[in-house]
């Protein structure tokens, strides 16, 4: 009984570690969710192992896989993970890391339930390191492309504006244009929808100000 309580407490602590990290980043997956996933996975693993041992003692003809329930946890947790993956209006996909952490929290609970405490703590440490510290290190010492972020902009141009010259002006401001869509508005103006890459150090407000000051721009909307 003491061992069971210890396993559940360890899994709760591991879920707490992961949950706090998500809470600090204001992600959909929070502290409560992580703890519930970790503790529930641990409980199912304990039940799976102990039930296999119990029923095998009743009769030699009964053979049960001790990790059968744990295997179902790994596949079943994907339903929760799929629920936090979102597609925004600008076609950007978000929530993949959160979904992966849900799967990771269940893995930590399984490891704790199976009695692999050291492995569980090492796994939790590596998850937190890979999510928080490693990206920061890579962005500092890696190629400049890793310090870029994608933004979307909608720019309405007044009639008579040379669109090609306007686009060249944007490129001259150190934006890397990935996609361009040009269409006419009801007011017979031109609207340019852009997907551009810029450095993370550039604030959204400063980018908006730069685009708003371009000659010919009458309306600017920036998202990123």
Uncertain residue ranges: none
Radius of gyration: 26 Å
What's the total helix number?
8
Helix content: 55-70%
Number of structural units classed as domains? 2
C-alpha end-to-end distance: 52 Å
In what range is the share of β-strand residues?
15-25%
Overall average residue pLDDT: 80
Lateral arrangement of strands in the main beta sheet: 4-5-3-6
Overall 3D shape = elongated
- Which structural class should the secondary elements be placed in? alpha+beta
Summarize the structure.
This protein is α+β, with helices and mostly antiparallel strands and 224 residues long.
What layout of secondary structure does this protein have?
Blueprint: H1 2-24, H2 31-58, H3 68-76, H4 78-83, E1 86-87, E2 93-94, H5 96-113, H6 117-141, E3 148-157, H7 163-172, E4 176-184, E5 190-199, H8 204-212, E6 217-223
Antiparallel strand pairs: 1-2, 3-5, 3-6, 4-5
Helix pairs in contact: 1-2, 1-5, 1-6, 2-3, 2-5, 5-6
Account of the 3D structure:
It is a single chain. This protein has 224 residues and is an alpha+beta fold. The chain has 2 domains: 2-141, no CATH class; 145-223, ACT domain (Alpha-Beta Plaits). 57% of the residues lie in helices and 18% in strands. It contains 8 helices and 6 strands. The protein has helices at 2-24, 31-58, 68-76, 78-83, 96-113, 117-141, 163-172, 204-212; strands at 86-87, 93-94, 148-157, 176-184, 190-199, 217-223. The strands form 2 sheets. It has a 4-stranded antiparallel sheet with strand order 4-5-3-6, covered by helices on one side. Strand 1 (86-87) and strand 2 form a beta hairpin. Helix 1 (2-24) runs antiparallel to helix 5, helix 2 (31-58) packs antiparallel against helix 3 and helix 5 packs antiparallel against helix 6 (117-141). It is elongated, with a radius of gyration of 26 Å. The mean pLDDT is 80.
């Amino acid at each position: 009984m003491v061992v069971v309580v210890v396993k559940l407490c360890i899994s709760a602590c591991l879920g707490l570690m992961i949950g706090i990290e998500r809470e600090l980043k204001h992600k959909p997956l929070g502290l409560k969710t992580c703890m519930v996933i970790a503790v529930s996975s641990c409980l199912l693993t304990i039940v799976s192992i102990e039930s296999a041992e119990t029923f095998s003692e009743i009769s030699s003809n009964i053979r049960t896989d001790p990790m059968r329930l744990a295997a179902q946890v790994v596949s079943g947790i994907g339903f929760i993970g799929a629920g936090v993956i979102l597609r925004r209006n600008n076609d950007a996909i978000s929530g993949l890391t959160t979904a992966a952490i849900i799967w990771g929290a269940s893995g930590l609970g399984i490891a704790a339930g199976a009695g692999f405490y050291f492995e569980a703590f090492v796994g939790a440490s590596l998850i937190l390191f890979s999510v928080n510290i490693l990206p920061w290190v890579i962005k500092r010492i890696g190629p400049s492309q890793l310090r870029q972020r994608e933004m979307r902009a909608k720019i309405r141009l007044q009639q008579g504006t040379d669109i090609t010259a306007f686009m060249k002006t944007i490129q001259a401001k150190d934006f890397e244009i990935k996609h361009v869509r040009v269409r006419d508005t009801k007011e017979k103006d031109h609207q340019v929808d852009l997907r551009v890459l810029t450095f993370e150090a550039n604030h959204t407000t400063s980018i908006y100000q730069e685009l708003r000051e371009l000659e010919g721009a009458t309306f600017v909307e920036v998202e990123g």
